[in-house]
Amino acid sequence: MYEISFYARAGQGAKSAAQFLAESAIKEGKFVQAFPNYGPARQGAPMQAFVRISRRPIKIHSAVVSPQVVVVIDPSLLDFIDVAKGLDKQGFVLVNTSLTVEQIRKKISFVGKIYTFDASSIALELLKKNFANVVLLGQLVKLSKIVKLENLLLVAKKKFSHKLLDQQLITANLTAIKSGYQAIINSGRGISNSQRNKKITFKTDKLKNWREVLPGGLITQAGNATKYQTGNWRDQRPIVDHNKCIKCMACVNLCPEHAIHLVNGKIVIDYKHCKGCGICATTCPVKAIKMIKENKK
């Protein structure tokens, strides 16, 4: 049985990627499972999606804990999630990033194969949006050989057609998958025994025991939402051109996070809480706000 874990943020297409891969395997007569793992989270919240592919009926019905492959759609998750936990040492990690394998190696506790390439740049070029999931699927199929590329393309075309996308956009998505398949990637095939012993730690808050945890649903402090700095959910950042801005307040009124304010006569964005949804850029009547790729190192 072949198991794959996708790490992404809600809205980045990890669930769709898992479904596309699973349905491609069905075309080849294999048994599959594909499902996401997230709670009541909004767009931008960290989440996972899992795929199981087997030539025999699958009797396991739980989250994947020992995958052969890990695919990281959003590299910012590497700063606080150990994506390689439980990963088979003979498996590999595929990361959407412009960083080198050596730079990624310092972030994760994995001694095996790591592959990196900038799928987001390909997606932005072909789709005009950061849908790196389809680009990564092409490369994943190439590396794992778990399904055939032609079956993935058939499934993708059918799925996109059902979403009522126009033919030009369907073609662009299929081209993105092919471009991912053909992309030249950076690879690292393991490290020395001396490096294997280097311990990588992740900063995490100490978990409370059951006696210390308050009953669910209680809010003990008013206004505590400001303590949750959700700016690291963002993969694109809004930038304001103050020369164009007419201070119509549309962005202030429509921001779902109330992260945009008028301060001293200028529009100011609170990047600690802005999730990069892009509503401000879309609704600005004079196009004074544009979205740029978030630079997280």
Number of helices: 9
How much of the polypeptide forms β-strand, as a percent range? 15-25%
Order of strands across the biggest sheet? 2-3-1-4-5-6-7
Query: How is the CATH topology of the largest domain named?
Result: Pyruvate-ferredoxin Oxidoreductase, domain 3
Helix % is 25-40%
Q: What is the overall pLDDT average?
A: 87
User: What is the element string, with H for helices and E for strands?
Assistant: EHEEEEHEHHHHEHEHEEHE
What is the number of strand segments? Answer: 11
What's the level 1 CATH class of the largest domain?
Alpha Beta
The helix/strand class is alpha/beta
How can the largest sheet be summarized? 7 strands, mixed
State the low-pLDDT regions, or none.
Answer: 191-205
Q: Please give the CATH architecture of the largest domain.
A: 3-Layer(aba) Sandwich
Number of domains: 2
- Oligomeric status of the shown chains? single chain
Descriptive key words:
297 residues; alpha/beta; Pyruvate-ferredoxin Oxidoreductase, domain 3; 2 domains; two-stranded antiparallel sheet; 11 strands; globular
Topology:
Layout: E1 2-9, H1 14-26, E2 31-37, E3 46-54, E4 69-72, E5 92-96, H2 101-105, E6 113-117, H3 119-127, H4 132-144, H5 149-162, H6 167-182, E7 186-189, H7 193-196, E8 236-240, H8 250-254, E9 260-263, E10 266-269, H9 279-283, E11 289-293
Parallel strand pairs: 1-4, 4-5, 5-6
Antiparallel strand pairs: 1-3, 2-3, 6-7, 8-11, 9-10
Explain how this protein is built.
- The chain is of the alpha/beta class and 297 residues long.
- The protein folds into two domains: 2-196, 3-Layer(aba) Sandwich (Pyruvate-ferredoxin Oxidoreductase, domain 3), CATH 3.40.920; 229-293, Alpha-Beta Plaits (2-Layer Sandwich), CATH 3.30.70.20.
- 28% of the residues lie in helices and 20% in strands.
- The protein is built from nine helices and eleven strands.
- Helix 1 crosses helix 5, helix 3 (119-127) packs across helix 4 and helix 3 packs antiparallel against helix 6.
- The longest helix is centred in the middle third of the chain and has 16 residues, at 167-182.
